[in-house]
Amino acid sequence: GRTxxxxxxxxxxxxxxxxxxxxxxxxxxxxxxxxLGLKYEKGEGVSYIAPHPEDDISNTIITGVQGGxxx
Length: 71
Fold this sequence. Notes:
Blueprint: H1 2-6, H2 14-26, H3 30-42, H4 53-65
């Protein structure tokens, strides 16, 4: 996965990197799990972008200000 992620001697391809990171992560490889998490966080090679924790806090604050039930 790192070879495709970094483009070491081949064209950089995040989608293929995610494929290999996923395969390794499913087998318990901690480094692949970390790298896969980074791909999701950055939205590189994946169709889902992980939300940022502060987004949830902002939504709660907005809901509270608008009179929504936050409790």
